[in-house]
Amino acid sequence: MKKLAVHLHLYYLKQLPRILKYLRHLEYQDYDLFVTMVEHNQDIEQTIKSFNQKATIMIVPNHGYDVGPFIEFLHHIDLNNYEYILKIHTKSFKSNNFTILNGYSMSNKLWSYVLWDSVLGSKEQIQKCFAKFSDKNTGMVGSKFCLTDEKRTYEELLPDINTILTKLGFKPIFKTQFIAGTMFYVRAQLMRPLLAYSVQDFNPSDEKIKNHTLAHMIERVVAEIILQYGYKISGVGTTKPIILYGRFFLSKFFHFCWQIKRTSSGALIIKILRIPVYYKKTKEKRSNA
To answer: I need a labelling partner for 37 at 20 to 30 A (CA). Which of 19, 63, 75, 130 fits?
Structure first.
């Protein structure tokens, strides 16, 4: 049995060099690398093979953001062959929106760095993540800054989450926690229930849709599966906490200066120094996380 299967969903191709820098920290780990992409790109594929000659590259439908390809990856491996899975992916840097998690304000770019750094920031950071699994009750490990049980991050999705949980043979819930951003280490066997889905069950990915998709529901369900199996989700910090807290401060400052918000009814509001300067009704619903 190999210790680790790494799944990278590579949608934003320009982020590959940065991702490979993080993956180099796995140098002394026994792992297999699986990369999903939504279309062939010879240069990118050669770069991946140059980094890891044994890497498996799969072309998958652009359905379900990073979650649909993760499901497809699960169908292409034998879970009995691995002890752990690491799930990572690229993330859009374009959005001007800020995400508030556990009181921390994060731009999309900062959110990505927090997630990546927590699971792959250094060899020592990776050892810290695996050390969490020395507690047999730990089923998943990810960023402590993104591990949230805030009601607003799942409340609107709860009826659909419970429908999925019931379908998979689990109990309905009233509250939960999950790693917002869906990058984590997890015990491989705990992912078996997700094989009830395929990538074709997900709608085509649409960057304009920020919530209320099957992918967003499964993001929460993955964590709830861990909890209902009797395991816990553990959070870890990052390699450079002082720098990170400085970035949190700057992100919060910019969030104060400039905000783009969507209400639950779909209205778009732009605020400068928290003063509304623009309002427009749209069909796009608010993103919770």
So the answer is: 130
User: CA nearest 110: which of 247, 226, 246?
Assistant: 247
| DSSP classification of residue 277 | E
Indicate the helix (H) or strand (E) that contains 163: helix 158-167
Distance CA 55, CA 76 (A): 13
Phi and psi angles of residue 274, each rounded to the nearest 5 degrees, phi first = 70, 10
Domain-located, residue 263: no
> In the beta sheet, which residues pair with residue 2?
82
DSSP β-bridge partners for residue 143:
236
Count structural domains, the chain. 1
| Tally of CB atoms within 10 A around 283 | 7
Structure tokens at 188: 């491989």
pLDDT in tens, the chain (289 residues): 679 999 999 999 999 999 999 999 999 999 999 999 999 999 999 999 999 999 999 999 999 999 999 999 999 999 999 999 999 999 987 755 667 777 777 778 888 889 999 999 999 999 999 999 999 999 999 999 999 999 988 999 999 999 999 999 999 999 999 999 999 999 999 999 999 999 999 999 876 655 679 999 999 999 999 999 999 999 998 866 555 555 555 555 555 555 566 655 567 666 665 567 666 766 554 433 3
- Which CATH number do you get for residue 17? 3.90.550.10
Q: Domain containing 171: what range?
A: 2-247
* Three-class DSSP category at 211: coil
Reduced to 3 states (helix: H, G, I; strand: E, B; else coil), residue 17 is: helix
pTM, to two decimals: 0.84
Q: Closest Cα to residue 132, out of 187, 77, 182, 88?
A: 187
In a domain, 278, yes or no: no
| 8 Å CB contact between 71 and 44 | no
